[in-house]
Design goal:
single chain, 328 residues, alpha/beta, D-Maltodextrin-Binding Protein, domain 2, 10-stranded mixed sheet, 10 strands, elongated
Length: 328
């Protein structure tokens, strides 16, 4: 009888529901209403699907640089950071006072925000500019719009010009000008012919560029392989090719560079938590894909395709188990 009682007790205990893992996390992003806030929605949905009862709360911030600081100070468990900002942090480049070495990547989220270098066809033809590097050789009086100072697009375009031996002061000496403006304003400026070009990081198929091409003839400048290699090495940007015919006025595939963004944690996050977050993102990738058309390209394999910073060991363990990353 005792034997059966023991067996019944063991069966009863095994039948008890196991307390499910739940998470209450904060994820630092950028301003409300942008893509990063939608990524917050996607990560929240993925975690809820994987671990019912979990919540990922999106916290607005000043963007990736601010998120590096929040993560480094352990004020938030998760944050979105551009590849460029993470490279700057690792190197201790301004505005960081010293190298930031304790951040780890959970997953790469996108890298399809390439630098699109647009000139009016009239200006490009008049000065014989066919590639980005021709700007250094031709020294044209280029009136060009960059994104606003402090924006990651501004910083990388400035580095791109430096890589071909051109400074903003050179552009001014040649009779040109650098105008700092947000994307929509840039489109208005080139349509009104108050500038000759736009150098900005934008998603392929950007509506404002489609409308510019409908209003005036424009061309897109490719970047040569050596410039891409040099800038990628120094900034953490990814080589990228804008497919041919992404715009009606762009018949050829266009080599360039792209900014990407990744989900980042502090190295002090437990391996199990990092593993579980990576697992949720992979198994419920559709939740992130659904937040915006630009995110449809996200795949589990892509989540592993970055080399700017180390992956968190827990996330890496999961990716390797699933065959998404090399290693045992």
């Amino acid at each position: 009888m005792n034997k059966w009682r023991v067996a019944f007790f063991a069966l009863s205990v095994s039948a008890l529901p196991v307390q499910a893992q739940t998470y209450q996390l904060t994820m630092a992003g950028a301003s409300p209403g942008g893509l990063w806030s939608l990524l917050g929605v996607g990560v929240d949905r993925a975690m809820k699907a994987a671990y019912p009862g979990s919540t990922v709360t999106y916290q607005t911030s000043g963007g990736g640089i601010a998120n590096v600081q929040l993560l480094d100070q352990k004020k938030v468990p998760l944050g979105v950071v551009h590849n460029v900002e993470l490279r700057m942090a690792q190197n201790g480049d301004e505005p960081f006072r010293a190298p930031v070495k304790d951040l780890r990547v959970i997953a790469y989220l996108y890298n399809w925000a390439p630098f699109q270098l647009i000139l009016t066809k009239e200006f490009a033809d008049r000065h014989g500019i066919r590639r980005f590097e021709d700007i250094a050789a031709k020294k044209p009086p280029l009136r060009v719009a960059f994104n606003r100072r402090g924006n990651i697009g501004y910083m990388v375009v400035d580095r791109m010009l430096q890589s071909i031996g051109v400074s903003q002061s050179d552009i001014q000496k040649w009779g040109g000008a650098v105008v700092l403006a947000a994307s929509e304003e840039q489109a208005d400026l080139i349509r009104d012919r108050r500038i000759d070009g736009i150098f900005n990081t934008l998603f392929v198929g950007q509506r404002s560029l489609i409308e510019v091409g409908q209003a005036i003839p424009v061309v897109m400048l490719p970047i040569n392989e050596q410039t891409i290699k040099n800038v990628a090495a120094s900034t953490g940007t990814d080589p990228f090719v804008i497919p041919a015919n992404s715009y009606a006025w762009q018949p050829d595939a266009t080599p360039t560079l792209s900014v990407g963004a990744m989900l980042v944690a502090h190295s002090s996050m437990s391996d199990q938590d990092a593993y579980n977050i990576a697992k949720a993102l992979v198994e419920h990738v559709g939740e992130v894909q659904s937040v915006h058309p630009s995110m449809r390209a996200l795949t589990p394999q892509f989540m592993t395709q970055q080399s700017v910073a180390p992956f968190h060991p827990g996330a890496e363990k999961y990716f390797k188990e699933k065959g998404l990353m090399k290693g045992s």
